[in-house]
Amino acid sequence: MVEVVCSRWSQNYHLVDYLSQWRQEQKLSITRKPSYLNKAKKGLIQMEEETIKNDQEKGTIAGAVALIIGTSIGSGIPALPQKASPAGIFPSSISLIVCWGFLLIEALILIEINVSLRRGKRKGEEENEFEVISIRTMAQETLGDWGGTLATVFYVFLGYTSMIAYCSKSGEILYHLLNIPESVSGFLFTTVFTLLISIGGTRATDQFNQWLTASMIGLLVAIEVIAVVVGGWSGLDGSGNWGKVPATIPVIIFSLVYHDLAPVLCAYLGGDLPRLRASVLLGSLIPLLSLLVWDAISLGLSAQADQVIDPVELLMRVRWSGVSVMVEAFSLMAVGTSLIGTLLGFSEFFKEQLKSLSWNSSPTKTSKESTEFFGLRNWWGRNKISFTAMAMVVTPSLFISTTVPDAFSAATDIAGGYCMTMLYGVLPPAMAWAVHNQESKDSDRNELSRARPVVFAVGIFACGIVVEQVLLDFSAFHL
């Protein structure tokens, strides 16, 4: 959300691909040792190589923090003021801080479990290959096959609801900017990003995404400064409606979640728990502060109006017309960064499923006369899985986003209230509980055991969010 999400979702695939290539190059460089050293000091060299491997596999805290920030700050920000306005500044700010703390604990639980599983796999393998243990694998290893199936179901549901939200919001923004119908502009926007990933490849997508993220953060800072200058703080007061707080929780979770990065971060930092904890804490603080400032200035503008209106629309009515363009551009960039991460991660999931169906075609021997024909055929054989997986992601999302009114609001509520809460709220405590019950002498599992009351508390809180969302949707359905 801000984002999934961050985003929400990451940017994980191209990072994994890059790190895997980096790991292979390091392995080759390590194994090219002089033969006389291998004969004279075999034991010493093995210890040295192990140390070099461990040091080179680990990334930096700064890199991990940047990944979390880029994932968190996303398309949830434009939707937050409208949802938080009925509750007021103080209740919504408290809700933001509580949800941030809840998500921080959940991320730390995921990291503990992932590192524990990574170390367990290392003990059973002679070679320490770079590998990302996905949340689905974590659920399957700790909860059994039913846990893996449940994680898969929620992942697919979350992927589609997030895609629907991004397609719908992009169409809405482009309609305001270019006066193109929402269905057409949303279709074109999604198609451009789909072609960028499918044809441009991982490197082009990564470079474009870095530029987009940097521009988005710069615009956000500029917008917040302008809003303060024009009086965004002056309308604030301490009043609020605590009864409206539950309705803000789904979009807050959608805006702050970054937990799909947890497996990648564990691999990136080599399972170093102290640095992982520091990275998660620092990386999640910056999006929280950005959201608190954004919420405050937006609701401050809303309090000055005589009618109930979206605070973002009020910000766009500032005397200087350039502010409206900045807000729309920021929103579009936020949607774009979130869309890239979701397209990459979700399409890779479907590619994995299609490969298991033996879609790979064997190379065919051809004559020189039919080189062009079979060259095209071979090109399609190499890429049909990627294109099919991308079509499976994009087609249903575009269909629903163009046919369902207000699809963005509904999709963010479903994604934040159900999918993300179940996948990154309910499942991690359940996995930690299962790890605790398994008989093991591993020290990391003992750490989870000592934190069992906290695990139980966040599990109950996550279940409460889901129940509250069910009650809200049920009451709205019968109105």
TrEMBL record:
The chain crosses the membrane at residues 61-80, 92-113, 146-166, 186-204, 211-235, 247-268, 280-303, 323-346, 385-402, 414-434, 454-472. GO terms for cellular component: plasma membrane. This is Amino acid transporter transmembrane domain-containing protein. One of its GO terms (biological process) is amino acid transmembrane transport. Keywords: Cell inner membrane, Cell membrane, Membrane, Transmembrane, Transmembrane helix, Transport. It comes from Citrus unshiu (Satsuma mandarin). It comes from the Eukaryota. Its main location: membrane. The keyword Manganese does not apply.
